[in-house]
Design goal:
The chain is α/β, with parallel strands linked by helices. The protein has 13 helices and 9 strands. It is elongated and about 75 Å long. The termini are far apart.
Length: 295
Amino acid sequence: MLNMDEDALELKCHILDLPWEDVLVPHILCHLPLRHIASLQRVSKQFQALIQVYLANCRNFDLSQIGTCIPKEAFCNMLRDNKVLQNLSLHNCAEWVTDKELLPVIGQNQHLLRVDMRGCVRLTRHSLVAVSLSCVQLQHLVLAHCEWVDSLSLRSLADHCGGLQSIDLTACRQLKDEAICYLAKKCLRLRSLSVAVNANITDESVEEVAKHCRSLEQLDLTGCLRVGNQSIRTVAEYCPKLQSLKVNHCHNVTESTLNPLRKRNVEIDVEPPLQRALVLLQDVVGFAPFINLQI
């Protein structure tokens, strides 16, 4: 008969003895932050093999979870076998990632629903064309501060990704009204759009967006200096689901146009003139007088 020590030795089980693809990957590793997943690779060769299996089956890859800039070699190694990605965020490799690293990932992941390329200054229009051709089910795309985005690449996106629900084109300064109008006519399901910080955008494209994207909920026009009351009235008329409108620094948009939207409880980033005056007065004298706003 075995003694207590022999029993304990007999029952000893290592975590790696559990089934990898049936237990460890879907029920344990999926609950760990990506930074911990990356750290586990350095424990042993067996753990490295396990993590590679996990990464090959990972559907969400968000580099912002790691906390620091990931090396180029690590990025390529982590995604080399993955063909099932649905969410890809390039936040922590924006300064170095190029078409060379990204195109293979896009090419073998045709089920992507969400891609975040904000601030990826070294990419080119070829990456956006690749996304449009490979990821026809794409729903959410962030291209903020990607000044390489041009009219032709955006047209390709519109032609192939008609189910797009949100797109952030903040500071994509090559884009003009023509490109935004084309996008609006092709992507009728848009619920969120940002064309902020682009002096090329005028009432023409904003009106086209309003008329074709009737389910629009969020519209960011911050810094679009050539946008005025005309297009905002069109947005108010054609977009009954609108929840948020950003028009800060749109100096041609007046309170008379915004007021009907305020009455619909649309969140607007510009305070009413009287409210702004009270805030300014409080900053100057240290307090604001009581004023009955219902008079």
